[in-house]
Amino acid sequence: MLARIPCAVCACMVWAFPALAGQQVYLVRVEKAERRLELIGDGGKILRSFSIALGSEPFGHKHQEGDERT
After folding, report:
1. What pLDDT, on a 0 to 100 scale, did the predictor assign at position 29?
2. Which of 15, 22, 28, 39 has the most CB atoms lying inside 10 A of its own CB?
3. What are the beta bridge partners of residue 31?
4. pLDDT at site 1
5. Residue 14 belongs to what domain range?
6. How far is C-alpha 15 from the chain's CA centre?
7. pTM of the prediction?
8. Does residue 16 lie in a domain region?
9. How far is residue 37 CA from its own chain's centroid?
10. What three-state secondary structure class fits 27?
11. Separation of alpha carbons 52 and 10, rounded Å
12. Among residues 2, 1, 6, which one has the least CA distance to residue 50?
């Protein structure tokens, strides 16, 4: 359940910014090491970039709910 919340937040961000009106987002890329979310358009062009917050131990594979890896 908690894993779905970040996805929902990302989806809301895509629709919340009128600067993207008329532009198609083909990819949402999250760079965990840089703590950055990027909206990628046609041809690999970055349409928007956002700083993001991660859990206290964001690196490595998720092992269980509540391990703060996301």
Report:
1. 93
2. 39
3. 36
4. 46
5. 4-51
6. 13
7. 0.57
8. yes
9. 4
10. strand
11. 10
12. 6
Do the domain assignments include residue 36? Answer: yes
Instruction: Quote the pLDDT of residue 22.
Output: 74
Q: Which two tokens stand for residue 60?
A: 């490595």
| Cα 69 from Cα 25, distance rounded (Å) | 26
Q: Is residue 69 part of a domain?
A: no
In a domain, 63, yes or no: no
User: SS3 for 47?
Assistant: strand
Per residue of the chain (70 residues), give pLDDT as tens.
445 555 555 555 555 555 566 778 889 998 888 889 999 998 889 999 999 887 776 677 777 887 777 6
Closest CA to 25 of 33, 63, 17: 17
How far apart are alpha carbons 47 and 55 in whole angstroms? Answer: 26
Pairwise CA distance, residues 64 & 44, whole Å:
33
Looking at the structure of the chain, the number of domains it has is 1
Locus of tokens 């987002």: 25
